[in-house]
């Protein structure tokens, strides 16, 4: 028995050592649970994702900075699942790369917009679909955005115009439709605001409408402007020529019409111009000044010319390829003698050319005139320039001075003749500017790839390019790229993730003629190549013995843990009755009747708030602290933890949670659960992201509200309160209506919070005298204060004060002045805006006159009538506010009119908030006084 006891103690010791290690984890528990929620439903996660410490134990693809998860580099892992809103639970992320996981599907959650620190987002080549969320515009830090090669539909959100730092914007190869958004005079953003962007890749979508002239201007620094393969109509705007930095322009394969702008000549850096497959007409544009031009394709249009071919065709020094086939070019095709040496091809097929004058020298480039009247003449039809040469590129990187191995197990012989499993995919040029590859061109691509991998110390032995294919329908050019591992015969996950990242994030820079490019990676099925350990004879026995001992220890520890677990379970079952504590407390009455709210253990809440860490605090007041927490499900909650002195008796606490759990309304903050254990009283609420109305009005939260939003907040709060008064059974009087108790959700819907002082209005209580006046100075109904009779009309009074606060953005009592008296003092109904200009919040009367404001103030003043019976009911208030909103021209019942995307977040902006102006800090600590009658 004793011995068993010793063993048990030993095991216990081991167990605690193990525990201690877990506690010493490096990863913030908030991030760990965030990552878990995010990846919960994913399959094919890397096998080393075990334990609770992604940062400390170097999980594949997860990178951290001082215990916070900052990077997810998970490209090409063959992940299957969805990108859930839990992504917002990793708020420190600066880099997210989920590219080339075709099994990641579904829509992009709007919560992605909450990742304020995100700099790079790559979701290329996945299976995502649906709209690109408007909230993407909130990613102010973003410099790199690749959403190409998915199935996104809907329109390009104009909020993208807010990505003021974006350099790389790739939305190509999706099903995006509608117009190209540009900013308008109403201040709505558009793509023209992207003054740091160098890459507009919008090809292969269904964009329609005209190309807006103000899409381009001289402040821009665009290099690649790709709008090919869409449904754009109209002309190319003249403004394009203002962007003198452009190098590649693709407008091919649209429905564009008209003549070319005449001022293209400013585009000194323009190297590739693709205008084919449109309905352009008129003369060929004058490109004489485009000294960098190498490749121009204007085929398949209706260009005409009056009997000569423009001189630039032969005079431009760097020009290699001119494709003018399938147009209406007529007259004589005439090549001057001083054509440039770079020229490789002039394609004039299928025009109406009747003469060909090659000049006196033999020419060193190809001319294609097939399909012109000239080639129908006898004697020339067999000439090579009347044929269309077959172009069938074929290439595969040759062996590097060695003889290829015969490999087994589907390994492949690398260019260095080593058998291995390569990682690969397609390397695709969006604008290939050479017609005929030379050996040196292939070598350039291969060398640039090796240089790039070398620069990042990736374990790459060699690369092979093979299977070149030109996709003529969209005009792309692709290779198969195989990357071979060095040292071992296969990559581990880290290797693949890093190679894929270099390609997905455009860290690899190809030679100019191949640029811009993109890559789509295949999944890699050969992981796991740990070098095999030789185990023979002696060593074998030792290893065997060690393993046996280890196995025994593990079993023993497991047994110990099991025992402890069982014991704890027993304990927990006992504790599971949350009301056990009531039973223990004398006179506590029967257990509470809860609807939908759950019981939390103290430990549970400890875990989900990071041990009530300071960083999780989101508010504090007389009652105690409010913490933000993340439940294991990923749900965000706000936990109100009562301070010692504000703890209530068990009965009061029970009453409160019963009350809270009973009310369910979209304008009331709902209770998720509670904790009543170890002398703690905690309430767990749904988390409301945008803080209090007070913080908005004071400018503290950075959310600025215009007049219509203020009306909607009024309406929401009134509906919530009206529900408490009229639909809750028994009715509930809030008793502490104030701007600090109105919270704003992500759509700026108002939610009434903090029923801490609420009173159930039991019939027996109606009109009864209470013993204690509770509430907040400035909002307190004077009638209640004097008569101690509590009715719903006391809430109406407070609500009237709140309404005045909304129009003036002043605190109810400020520098000794009472808002109700101030308003009544200056009000003159015979004058414009009732003469209230001096007292109204300047920002709501800045531009336009706030419609319905007079009615709103009248209603507020009726609410603060001296006599309760003369005040309207909350239901009346709801109706009247609805009428005002209709008057302003909005539908009071449309929730979506106010989305989180459309509000103005001003952090350190130039809006001056009245509170700030008066150097009066309206921060969270307005005293919530409890007045004891003398
Ligand atoms: C986008 O695609 C989904 C299905 O993939 C479809 O249900 C939806 O209607 C589409 N939306 C638009 C705007 O075309
Ligand atoms: C864009 O940003 C501005 C300024 O921050 C903001 O006012 C506007 O609402 C945002 N627009 C969209 C569509 O996100
Ligand atoms: C270019 O457009 C942006 C956004 O519309 C504007 O801020 C800027 O002043 C314009 N620059 C010029 C030179 O017109
Ligand atoms: C070539 O086409 C232009 C425009 O259609 C026309 O004006 C001109 O007369 C034509 N020239 C010849 C030689 O047919
Ligand atoms: C014009 O378009 C057709 C059909 O897409 C294509 O076969 C032809 O090669 C194009 N012409 C030129 C000169 O590229
Ligand atoms: C993965 O491969 C790289 C390079 O070959 C190596 O440095 C690293 O230690 C490997 N990682 C694991 C977990 O084996």
């Amino acid at each position: 028995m004793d011995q068993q006891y010793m063993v048990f103690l030993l095991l216990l010791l081991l167990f605690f050592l193990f525990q201690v290690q877990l506690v010493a984890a490096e990863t913030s528990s908030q991030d760990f649970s965030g990552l878990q929620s995010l990846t919960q439903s994913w399959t094919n996660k890397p096998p080393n994702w075990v334990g609770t410490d992604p940062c400390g134990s170097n999980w594949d693809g997860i990178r951290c900075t001082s215990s916070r998860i900052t990077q997810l580099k998970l490209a090409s892992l063959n992940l299957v699942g969805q990108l859930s809103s839990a992504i917002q639970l990793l708020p420190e992320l600066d880099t997210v790369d989920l590219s080339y996981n075709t099994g990641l599907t579904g829509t992009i959650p709007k919560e992605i917009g909450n990742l304020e620190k995100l700099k790079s987002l790559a979701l290329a080549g996945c299976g995502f679909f649906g709209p690109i969320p408007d909230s993407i515009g909130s990613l102010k830090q973003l410099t790199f955005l690749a959403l190409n090669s998915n199935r996104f539909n809907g329109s390009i959100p104009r909020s993208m115009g807010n990505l003021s730092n974006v350099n790389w914007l790739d939305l190509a190869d999706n099903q995006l439709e509608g117009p190209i958004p540009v900013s308008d005079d109403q201040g709505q953003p558009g793509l023209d605001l992207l003054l740091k962007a160098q890459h507009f890749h919008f090809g292969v979508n269904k964009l329609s409408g005209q190309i807006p002239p103000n899409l381009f201007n001289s402040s821009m620094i665009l290099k690649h402007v790709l709008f090919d393969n869409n449904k754009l109509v109209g002309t190319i705007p003249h403004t394009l020529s203002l962007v003198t930095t452009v190098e590649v322009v693709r407008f091919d394969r649209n429905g564009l019409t008209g003549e070319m702008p005449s001022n293209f000549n400013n585009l000194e850096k323009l190297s590739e111009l693709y205008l084919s497959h449109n309905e352009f007409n008129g003369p060929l544009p004058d490109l004489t000044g485009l000294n960098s031009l190498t490749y121009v394709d204007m085929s398949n249009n209706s260009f005409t010319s009056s009997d000569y071919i423009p001189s630039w065709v032969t005079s431009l020094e760097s020009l290699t390829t001119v494709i003018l086939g399938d147009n209406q070019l007529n007259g004589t095709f005439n090549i001057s003698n001083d054509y440039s040496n770079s020229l490789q091809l002039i394609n004039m097929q299928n025009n109406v050319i009747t003469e060909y004058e090659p000049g006196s020298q033999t020419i060193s480039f190809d001319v294609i005139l097939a399909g012109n009247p000239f080639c129908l003449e006898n004697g020339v039809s067999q000439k090579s320039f009347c044929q269309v040469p077959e172009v069938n590129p074929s290439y595969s990187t040759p062996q590097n001075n060695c003889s290829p191995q015969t490999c087994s197990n589907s390994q492949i012989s690398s260019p260095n003749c080593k058998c291995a499993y390569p990682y690969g995919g397609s390397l695709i040029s969006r604008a290939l500017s050479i017609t005929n590859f030379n050996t040196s061109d292939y070598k350039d691509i291969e060398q640039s790839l090796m240089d790039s991998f070398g620069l990042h110390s990736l374990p790459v032995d060699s690369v092979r390019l093979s299977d070149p294919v030109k996709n003529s329908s969209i005009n792309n050019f692709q290779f198969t790229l195989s990357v071979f591992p060095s040292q071992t015969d296969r990559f581990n996950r880290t290797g693949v993730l890093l190679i894929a990242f270099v390609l997905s994030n455009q860290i690899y820079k190809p030679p100019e003629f191949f640029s811009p490019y993109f890559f789509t990676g295949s999944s890699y099925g050969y992981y796991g190549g740990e070098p095999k350990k030789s185990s023979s004879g002696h060593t074998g026995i030792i290893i065997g013995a060690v393993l046996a001992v280890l196995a025994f220890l593990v079993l023993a520890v497991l047994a110990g843990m099991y025992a402890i677990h069982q014991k704890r379970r027993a304990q927990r079952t006992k504790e599971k009755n949350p009301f056990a504590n009531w039973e223990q407390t004398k006179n506590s009455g029967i257990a509470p009747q809860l609807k939908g709210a759950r019981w939390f253990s103290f430990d549970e809440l400890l875990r989900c708030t990071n041990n009530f860490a300071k960083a999780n605090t989101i508010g504090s007041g007389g009652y105690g602290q409010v913490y933000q927490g993340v439940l294991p499900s990923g749900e965000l909650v706000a936990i109100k933890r009562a301070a010692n002195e504000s703890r209530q008796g068990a009965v009061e606490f029970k009453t409160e949670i019963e009350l809270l759990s009973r009310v369910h309304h979209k304008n009331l903050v709902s209770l998720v659960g509670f904790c009543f254990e170890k002398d703690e009283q905690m309430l767990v609420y749904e988390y409301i992201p945008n803080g209090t109305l007070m913080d908005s009005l004071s400018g503290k939260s950075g959310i600025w509200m215009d007049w219509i939003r203020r009306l909607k907040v009024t309406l929401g709060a009134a509906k919530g309160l009206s529900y408490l008064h009229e639909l809750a059974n028994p009715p509930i009087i809030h008793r502490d209506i104030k701007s600090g108790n109105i919270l704003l959700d992500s759509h700026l819907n108002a939610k009434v919070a903090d029923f801490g002082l609420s009173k159930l209005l039991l019939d027996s209580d109606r009109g009864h005298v209470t013993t204690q006046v509770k509430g907040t100075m400035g909002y307190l109904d004077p009638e209640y204060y004097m008569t101690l009779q509590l009715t719903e009309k006391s809430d109406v009074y407070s609500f009237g004060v709140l309404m005045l606060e909304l129009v003036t953005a002043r605190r109810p009592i400020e520098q000794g002045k009472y808002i109700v008296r101030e308003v009544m003092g200056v009000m003159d109904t015979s004058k414009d805006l009732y003469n209230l200009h001096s007292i109204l919040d300047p920002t709501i009367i800045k531009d336009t006159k706030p419609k319905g404001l007079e009615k709103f103030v009248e209603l507020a003043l009726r609410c603060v009538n001296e006599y309760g019976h003369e005040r309207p009911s909350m239901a009346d208030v709801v109706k009247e506010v609805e009428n005002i909103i209709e008057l302003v021209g909005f539908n009071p019942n449309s929730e979506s009119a106010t989305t989180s995307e459309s509000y103005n977040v001003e952090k350190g902006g130039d809006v001056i908030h009245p509170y700030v102006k008066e150097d009066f800090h309206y921060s969270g600590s307005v005293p919530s006084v409890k007045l004891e009658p003398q």
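The chain has a mean pLDDT of 82. Residues 129-130, 153-154 surround 2-acetamido-2-deoxy-beta-D-glucopyranose (ligand 1) (CB under 6 Å).
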